[in-house]
Structures are given as C-alpha cells and as structure tokens.
C-alpha cells in the first residue's frame, strides 16, 4: 500500500512538473523598444523587421511595444534609458556617446564604401574584439543588431566639383568629430549646424553645402538647394546599434536569447541592404529628374581622391589612447577585418 501511495505521489509530481514546464514554455515576454527616429525614417522599417523576425524565431513568445520619435526620451538619453530599464532595447549610436563607447567609433573611419561592407565589418568587429564587447558590457547593455551607412559624400549648391582641388575652401555642414578631421584634410571648412538649418543656410549662401548621404538629402529636401554631389568619396560613415539591457537579456530563457540574437542578425542584413538600395535608387531618381548632378570618382582617380586621408586613423588612435583606451589594438582588428571584407 505504501509503495502504491509513493508511486502515486511521484506520478502527481511529474505531471505537475510537466504542466509547469508547458506553462513556462508558453509564456509571452513583452519587450519595449525605443528610438529617436521619426515614423517615416528608414530605421522604422529595420525595427519592424527585427520585431517580426524575433516573433517568428520565438514562435510568438516574444512580443514588443515600439516607441519611436523620442516618445520615451531624447537621442542623447537612449543609452541611459536602456541602462535603467525604462525601455528594454534602445537605439544607440556610439558617436553620440564617445565617453562610454569611444572605441566603437572606430567603425566610422573611411575604410569601406557601402553600408553592407560597413555593417559586416562592425558586426565582425564585435565578435572578434574583446575590447569592443567590454565597452558594451561596462555600460550594462548588449547590442543585438549593427548597422552602418555608406560613406558620406560632399553635396554643394552653386559650387561645381570637377576635381579634388574644388573641395578646398568649401564651407560645409559636417556631422562633427572625426568627420571634421577628414574634411579638413581636403581643405574643407567644417561648419557645425543641424540638418534642419542646412537647407536655409545653403539657400542663402551661408554655407556651400553639406557632407552627408543621399537619404539625408531626401529627408531634408536638400535636393532643392544642392545641385551636385560626389560619388565614391570616403568621408566617414555613421554606425549604430540597437542595444538591450543586459540584466533583462539574461533573465530571458536561453532559447529566447538566441531568438533575439538571430533576429538581430537578420535585421542587420536587412538594414544594410535597405540603405544601399536607397542610395542607388535616389541617385538614379535625382539624376533622372534633373534635380542633381553627380561627380563620380572613377577607379583610376580613386587613389588620388583618397590620398589626403592617409594616416587619419592615427588621429583617432591618439585621441582615444590619450584617454587610456587600447585604441591601436582595436583599430588593427578593425583594419584587418575591413581589408578582408572590401577585397571580396
């Protein structure tokens, strides 16, 4: 009789355990995503791709609330918002956080051309460099997807570009930081201002144009005041991530952690393809509609146009080594990856 009772108790225990396990596996985890981009920005599509991919990878056990357009905070607050758990995942551009993510800005340097190349390089850099990973860990967040733009170009209003010497003396709106250092090597005078102010400043002749990419030209309607842009120049690229609160990530079941990682990988590829397709499409559109002319740097002229950038990495290394960071080691890893990717 005792044996029957014991077997019955054990049986009930395993049934309860099985039911508990089934309940846990069906639990839906809702995560908050926040960024600063307006709803029509290309990255809105990237976030939606990420959310859809994560839902699919998790068989519906991951769900999301998306807060775009600074609904949960300003651009410069995004890292803090993730750290404090006000949102679980936020948009974090390392160039806006040089004090916390300075080594990650290495990926802005002009050692590749397309968004696809830059995104592959940045993703691989995270995998290979402990120093890069440690910056994120030290900030208590984990990047899930990586994205890069194509290289920035020179756009001008009434100044025509027919050769490299035509860049000298141009007053151009720049993104600041290392982008200014690159511009100065061509004799360009960097001007700090927002894109919102650039339109009127070009229109009134206060500046000659801006350093940017074609999606920005479209977004800020600069094609109405800028009539020419270079193609093939390398004046830096913008890199970004969507990063998750590390504590929240580790609290998720391992299969859901893997679902987020796979969704991030998918969204990274999607973001790169989206950006490169946008650039190619806008180039064709603007030229076809007679809105802009393009000065394309031919292959035999490439070396001449890139020569002023020789050694630009030393300025970056010096800046961050002065802060006690292993900048040269990180650059060497970045450069090795970049050479392999751009050679493919």
CATH class category label of the domain at 29-149 and 238-277 = Alpha Beta
The largest sheet, given as strand count, sense and whether it forms a barrel, is:
6 strands, mixed
Mean pLDDT: 93
Secondary-structure-based class equals alpha/beta
Helix content: 40-55%
Secondary structure tally: strands: 11
Estimate the global geometry from the Cα principal axes. globular
Distinct helical segment count: 14
Q: How are strands sequenced across the largest beta sheet? A: 7-6-8-5-9-11
Please describe what this structure looks like:
With 344 residues, this protein is of the alpha/beta class. Among the domains are: 161 residues, Bacterial extracellular solute-binding protein, family 7 (D-Maltodextrin-Binding Protein, domain 2); 79 residues, D-Maltodextrin-Binding Protein, domain 2. It contains 14 helices and eleven strands. The strands form two sheets. The protein has a six-stranded mixed beta sheet. β6, α7 and β7 form a beta-alpha-beta unit. α5 runs antiparallel to α11. It is globular. About 5% of the residues have low confidence.
